[in-house]
Every structure is written in structure tokens, then in C-alpha cells.
């Protein structure tokens, strides 16, 4: 007997699987926890397999659950693609673009593109999530997102990746700081001082923590803040030094008594790429977004 698959079940299961929690999956699905639990149990009974292992810490996917999740994502992606491709023929048709990017892409490069895009596509909703670049590649491969914006030397085998801009990370310090006497410094030199840094959960701060770990030295953080703007203000107040994108520093420095110098480390120059499993196979509105992003920055090739 054919199994009656349901689109709502697919969406619900993806939400639970991605959050590893019935509660958070229910919140994302705008349903009650008992309703979600019952729906998944009915799904398991219908399929005759267990999809989730439940525990007080949350839920984990079984082997069958991993297979179901993979196919659910493919089905939902195909539906979004169909929606986007029909949009030119149907007035008012809406769609969703899933986009995962790292911290710098979200703060420096995506805002103007998203603003222009949404102005001409009022019926498209963009879901933007922040992750580390290696996590982004994994999510694109799994079909959990339409597009990924990554930087650095992250393997992208099996994906299509198009470079669109280069960006530099720099050291920022109060005027008169001894490190600013040099045009370039090694990140290792900066580890002798206390830092102002983004919140611990941010993708950028996780990247910097890894960089310090590779040197087997701790990164002493005096203050955690939520934005590059707050970093500049804290550095100006003498709370510490910081590492941040050159593009963000140029945008936020203003008249504050702070200066910057370049980092000598190879990883401080990063090439940003937009990646997808198949750029031509994306929905029309996702493909257009990718083309707009590439077109806005690629001609110059560098944004500092």
C-alpha cells in the first residue's frame, strides 16, 4: 500500500530535526508541543519506523530519520523552486529564500542587496541565518538552505561556488597603542593584550577563537558586545583592542579616537563566495538573488 506523504509532516519534521527539540520545533511550526509530538508519532506509525530518539536533552535522529530528513528537504526545496518559477506567471505568488551566511557577510555585504531585492520582490520572504563557513557548506550540501555565503579556505567540493568580493580583517586599537606603530602585525602579537569581541555565539567570534586555538594561546576577552559598532565604541573607550573587518571599520570609525593596522596572517584576507548545490537549478527568485549579489560586488572584486 502506498504511504500518504504529507507536506505539513515534511515541514514539521525538518523544524524538529534542525532544532533537535520538539519544543523549539513546535515554536518554529506555530503548533503546540503535544500536537507536534502526536503528529510525529502518527507519522512513525504510518511509516512503520522510528524517526526520532527522544530524551530529556531533546531528540536525535535515527538512521531512518536521517533518510526522511534528507528527502523532506529535497521535496520542500523542489516546491520552493516550483513556486519561484511560477511567480512570473501568477500575480501575488509568494516564496521563501533560505540563506545562511557568516557574520561579516550579514553585516557588511548582504543588507544593501537584500534591501533592493525585497523592494522589487515584496512577496518573497528571506530567511537569513548566521553560521560558520564550514557549517554553511554542510547545510548547503544537505539541502537545508538554498544559498550559502562563505569565506576563507573552506572545501566546496560537490557545490557550485562563485567568488564575489575579497575582504580584509584588521586590528583596531585606541590611538597611541603600541601595536599601531607597525603597519602590519601578526595575530599572535595581539594575543598579549585584552580584547573587545563579539558575543561568544557569533560565527565571527568562533572563527577568532579557533585562530587563537591554532596558536595554542588564549584570547583574553575583557568585554563581549553584540555589534561591530559597539566594538568601535568600546575600543575608543580603552576597553581593549579588537579584530574586525576593514569594511566595518571604515563604515563605523567616524571621529572616534581609534586606529587600525593590517594583519599579516594569511587567513586575514578572505574571499567571499556564494554557493549552492546547483545555481541553475535554483528557483528563479533564488537565482536572481545570487546574480544580484555577485553583480553588485564582483566587478570591483574587493571591498576592503
TrEMBL record:
Q: What does the sequence similarity comment in the record state about its family?
A: Belongs to the LysR transcriptional regulatory family.
Pull one GO CC term from this UniProt entry: cytosol
Question: Where, by residue number, does the polypeptide cross the bilayer?
Answer: none
Q: Where is the HTH lysR-type domain?
A: 5-62
Q: Which UniProt keywords apply?
A: DNA-binding, Plasmid, Transcription, Transcription regulation
The protein depicted here goes by the name LysR family transcriptional regulator
> What are the recorded GO MF terms, alphabetically?
DNA binding; DNA-binding transcription factor activity
Q: Which InterPro entries match?
A: HTH-type_LysR_regulators (IPR050950), LysR_HTH_N (IPR000847), LysR_subst-bd (IPR005119), WH-like_DNA-bd_sf (IPR036388), WH_DNA-bd_sf (IPR036390)
Q: Pfam families from the entry?
A: HTH_1, LysR_substrate
Question: Origin organism of this chain?
Answer: Cupriavidus necator (strain ATCC 17699 / DSM 428 / KCTC 22496 / NCIMB 10442 / H16 / Stanier 337) (Ralstonia eutropha)
